[in-house]
Design a protein that fits this description.
The complex is a heterodimer of chains A (about 90) and B (about 425).
Chain A: H1 2-20, H2 29-45, H3 55-83
Chain B: H1 7-17, H2 22-25, E1 36-41, E2 47-53, E3 71-72, E4 84-93, E5 106-109, E6 114-115, E7 130-136, E8 140-142, E9 145-155, E10 160-161, E11 167-170, E12 186-197, H3 203-268, H4 271-283, H5 285-301, H6 307-323, H7 328-341, E13 348-351, E14 354-355, E15 362-364, E16 367-370, H8 371-377, H9 381-412
Antiparallel strand pairs in B: 1-2, 2-12, 3-10, 4-9, 4-12, 5-6, 5-11, 7-9, 8-9, 13-16, 14-15
Classes of the chains: A mainly alpha (about 90), B alpha+beta (about 425).
Amino acid sequence: MIIESLVNLFLKIITFLLDKLPTIPQIPVEVSNAINGFVDFVFDNVGLLGVFVPLNLMKIIIPAWLIVEAVVMIYSVTMWVIKKIPFVDIH
Amino acid sequence: MNKKYLWLFILPLFLFLFIPNDAFAATTEYKNPKMDIIGYDSSDGSLRYIASCDACSELQNSYGYPEVVRIWFNSSLFNDNTEYTVSFRFRWVYNSMYDVWPQQPIMYDSYNQLTGVMPGASHVANGYTITNWTYTDGYQQSGYWFRYHEVTFKLKGDIFINLLGQYFLDIPFINNVDSWPEYYPLNFKLELDSIMISDSLSETDTIINNAVDKLIQQDAINQHSTNTKLDDIKNTNLSIWDTIKSILSNIITFPQKIGEKIGELLNDLPIWDTIINIYNYITNIPLRIGEVIADKLNYLFIPSEDFYETTIDKYSEDITNSLGMLWFPFDFIENFVSKYVALETNPIINIPNIKDPVYGVTLIEARCFNIQEIFQYGSIGTVYNIYMVFAGAFIVILFINFLIRKFNHIINGNESGAA
């Protein structure tokens, strides 16, 4: 109940603030179609890579790689911020 | 006098205008309110309605006429929306020493100020139309009763005829009228001669007999009810005596029974089981309290199962519209991830039908190739399988190496990620 109330409150604040901001136009349809068309083209033909590399394995390795990179990046950013604090003596 | 108080006198005059006229006429509606039909009689096989007038002071002179208040036909005799022809007579039952003789038989319609009865007198009863009245001008005198006159009419719809305040039996007397005592009861019988469905005389007897049967049955029921009550009284008296006897015997044996009951209670009481149950209940109290607290905490802090789904559906449209093109990256990521999850890992090539554009002849049939299967099960299948094993191993080794580099980067504090 408390979590639900907080989430609802947060979303109401967000929507309220967004309502006060000027409306941002949507991305042009041509642009979105081009991008989505390219993605569709890649994914429709990426199966051919399966001739040379095991795609089942890649479907696991690639997300794991992205997660590790994201964690390291968050760690690096956090450490960069902490090192900017003068009295925290970290080098 | 101050004029502003004048409305106190004018307002009641206006209110007086809104009082209905018939509010003052109600008390003069009835010539003789003591006259009413008190029941029916079926002693001689015919159905009669009896009107009674006790101490009718209006009958002391030749102009007295008891009011026929109401003619009511038992609703169980009739069907709705059926036209019946009903014949009845007013008969005066006379049981005194006075020799009375009807002078002129008339029915008096106080509404129209006419004698006799009028056909189509719709005012007789609201909602009921009497289609025809047939007046039989004749009366008989035999012994101490006389047939006064006879009216035949048809009615539609319901079977309730209210003659309230409209018709009167006008009974002029020629003998001893002046000495008629005020307190002497007069009984008038409205004798129902026949009831028949119009143009169907054969049903007359049936209806009359049915009515008589109903009355006989009602009498039997009343008699049975009376007998039952007498039996109940007798049984009640017996049961009271039995109760008194049982009370006395119980009083005498009361101490002995108390002792027996206490002994049985002590013998049958599972005292240790009861104590153990109490102990278990007490020791389980903290557990029960914990369960209650856990339930309440669960209710407070854990959202319901469909909360996030419904909430996202509720707010996503507003947020998407407000953000505009800024929302596109999120859309793109969602699209990319969904395609990646649904990625077909088998390298299948679909070739559609290829036709001659001029003649429409199919040159190449539609087919699909799984290239991986061609390599796996072809002549180089073994070599290909070995290659795939090494390729997988190489990828895994690269990934492990990647993890080691990142681990060293975090341990050594190298923000560039280089090992």
